[in-house]
C-alpha cells in the first residue's frame, strides 16, 4: 500500500487498500468456514518464533501486502485454536462471523466510548439494558462492558467495598477496616485477585468449603460470618459462583441471596460463563436467585461466542456504581448540550477512560441470533457434556471425576499401574500436539484429571466420540508402553501429520 506524500497515514490509492481489504475478508471467511478441517492446534515453529523475536523496529514505511503475508505465514496457523470445534480446554468461546464483521465496522468508526453525545453510547446502554433483561435485573441497573469477568469481578468487589464503607473510602482508603469477604473454595482465582487489588489483602477473603457437588457449603458460610462478627470483623460481601471453572457447579444462589439480605451483605455473583444459562429454559431453574443479586459479572466472549474481548458487569443499584467510580475533572465536565452532554458516561461506571466499541458486536449478534438461538447453543453444549459423561461411564478404562452440572466433564484414563496423574497429563498433551482435540487438565481431590469444557457452538456429537476414541487409543498405547513409529490418526478423520509426536523410551 503506497502512502500519500503529505504526512497522513491514509493511503495514496484507496482502491489498492480496498482490493487488499476484500482479499483479507475473503481469506478470513474461508478460515472460519474450513476450521473443522484444520488441526485444533499446531505448535508455533521455531522459524516463526524467530521471525517475531528478532524482528527490528521498522523505521521506514513498509508494504501492507508483506505485513499480511507475515500474518498468514507466522500468525494465523498458530493460535490457541479456540474457534475449532474440538477445542475443549479451559472455558473459551468460539467466536462467530457476525462478531468478526462487527469488529471490522467498529475498527473503522474508531469510537472512544468513554462517553460523549454519540449513537455508539446508546448502543452500549441498550446492550446493558438487554443484559439486565436477560439476567432478570431491573431495567435501570447500572453496568458497562469491560475486557472480561476478571475486571467485572474487580468492579463488583470495589462497588461492594464503597457501599460498605461509604464514599469516604475513596479519599481515606480502607485503612484498618477489618472487611471480610466470602466465596467458595471452588471460586475462580480472579476473586482473590480482585480482593487483593481492592486493597483488602487476600486474607480478607474466606474460602468456604464446598459439598460433593462443588457448591458452597451454606452452613459453613453462616458459621464463618458469625465467627467473624464475633471477632469484631466486618463481613461485607459474599461472592457466589454460577458455573465454577473446574466442574461447572452452581452455588445455591437463592439461599445465598436470602442469607445476604438477612445479614445485610453485598451479594455478588461470578457468572463468567454460567450466567448465560439464563437463556436456556431447561437450565434457568439452576440459576434461581441470580436475579436477586446486587451485582453480576459475566462474559459475552465465552458461552455467548462473541469475539474476544467482551465482559460485562451489572449492578442493581446504578447509583452505587457511579458512587464508586465517578470523579470530577475540569477537562471532563458534563454539559447540558453539545458533545459533552448525556452524563453519566461509561467512565463513571468503571476504571477505564478511553474504551472501544465492544457493544457493537454484542448488539449485532443479538439481532442476528436472538436469545433463543444463543440459548440453544448453551443447551446443546450441556447435552454434549451429558453424552460425553454417558460414554465415559460406559468405558471401563475411563472414570468420571465429578458430577456434570452444566457443560464441563472431568474424567481420567485408568490403568492398572503407574503414575496416573502423569499418564493423564501426557494423554492431554499428546491430544493437543497431534491437533486432534484440546481438552485441558485440572486437579480434583488432589488428582490430576482430564477436563473437557464444551463451550464452542461448532462442537458436534461426533467430536465427542473423536475425543474419547483418541483418549482410549493414546491411553492404551502409553500404559502398554508401546512405542509407535509414526502415529497416524487418519481413521479419526483428521488430516495426517508428518511428524511423529511422541516416542517413549522403555
Ligand atoms: C473465565 C472465568 C473468569 C475470568 O473471566 P475472564 O473473562 O477470563 O477475565 C472468572 N470466573 C469464572 C468462573 C470463569 O470461568
What does this structure look like?
This protein is an alpha/beta fold and 506 residues long. Helices cover 40% and strands 12% of the residues. The protein contains 14 helices and twelve strands. It has helices at 14-33, 46-53, 64-75, 97-109, 119-135, 149-165, 169-172, 189-197, 218-230, 253-263, 318-325, 358-394, 420-434, 461-479, and strands spanning 87-88, 142-146, 179-184, 205-208, 234-241, 266-270, 295-299, 311-315, 398-400, 408-413, 438-444, 447-453. The strands form two sheets. Strands 2-8-7-6-5-3-4 form a seven-stranded mixed β-sheet, sandwiched between helices. A five-stranded mixed β-sheet has the order 1-11-12-10-9. A hairpin with a 2-residue loop joins β11 (438-444) and β12 (447-453). α4 (97-109) packs antiparallel against α12 (358-394). The protein is globular and about 65 Å long. 43% of the residues are buried. Residues 485-506 have low confidence and may be disordered. Pyridoxal-5'-phosphate is lined by residues 91, 148-150, 188, 190, 241, 243, 245, 270, 272-273, 299, 311.
Ligands (ions, cofactors included): pyridoxal-5'-phosphate
Return the string of H and E elements.
HHHEHHEHHEHEHEHEEEHHEEHEEH
Percentage of β-strand residues: 5-15%
In the sheet with the most strands, the strands line up as: 2-8-7-6-5-3-4
Number of helices: 14
Could you tell me the radius of gyration in angstroms? 25 Å
Report helical residue fraction: 40-55%
Provide the residue-averaged pLDDT.
93
Which regions have little confidence, pLDDT < 50, spanning 5+ residues?
485-506
Tell me, briefly, the overall form. Answer: globular
Total beta strand runs: 12
SS content category: alpha/beta
- Give the end-to-end Cα distance, rounded to a whole number of Å: 57 Å
Biggest sheet, in brief?
Answer: 7 strands, mixed
